[in-house]
Amino acid sequence: MSVIHPDTDNLHFTFDNFLRNEFRYYMDPNRPICRYFAAGHCPKGKACPDKHVIPNYANKIVCKHWLRGLCKKGDACEFLHEYNLRKMPECLFYSKNGFCTQSPDCLYLHIDPMSKIAPCPNYEKGFCKLGPKCTKRHIRKVMCPKYLTGFCPDGPKCGMGHPKFFAINDAMRIARDPQPSKPQFQQQPQQQPQSQPQSQPQQQSEPQQQQAQE
């Protein structure tokens, strides 16, 4: 059974001009890139015969003006013109105040402000001496039962907590004694030479005194 491939190059439709002007179909894919559009603006707009390439990095968020029906750039807009919940822009009111007056009907993303704070490396190791005063995020994790028994095969890739108890002991010792104690040398009092008792004249016995008188 043979497959028939009809020749469609010579076929023309009434909506060809619309597709060419609005969506730039039926144009040579090897045509040069428009330098004016790459610089920021092309005066010819959709009538330009060159290629208008939109950067991929900017085509990730839905256009907030398009959501309201107020975007004037049309297909030349650098943002998405489609309703995609995963690519909606962030709600500025929720990011500043922590709540939204239009919730749950708000069209924008509600991102938790705490998720933007970097995690605390000391807390991930097991202990942070700053406690609630720490400016970084303390992510609580359930301790890994395998690690507590002695070994976890997942290692650093484990999603549970691997506390290091020696870090806790060192931090507590530093907090208790911020400066190492210096040995205190006590000066021993100088011993004064003991005074020798003065020799008292020996009293002569009575027989000796009588002999001396004779």
Topology, please?
Elements: H1 16-22, H2 35-39, H3 64-67, H4 92-97, H5 121-125, H6 145-149, H7 165-176, H8 206-213
Overall outline: elongated
SSE run: HHHHHHHH
Please indicate the percent range of residues in DSSP E strands (runs of 2 or more): under 5%
Strand segment tally: 0
- SS content category: mainly alpha
Count up the helices: 8
* Sheet having the most strands: none
Please estimate the helix content: 10-25%
Radius of gyration: 46 Å
Structure description:
With about 210 residues, this protein is mostly helical. Among the domains are: about 55 residues, no CATH class; about 50 residues, no CATH class. Helices cover about 25% and strands about 0% of the residues. The protein contains eight helices and no strands. It starts with 15 loop residues before the first helix and ends with a helix. The model has no long low-confidence stretch (mean pLDDT about 70).
Give me some keywords for this one:
8 helices, mainly alpha, 214 residues, 0% strand
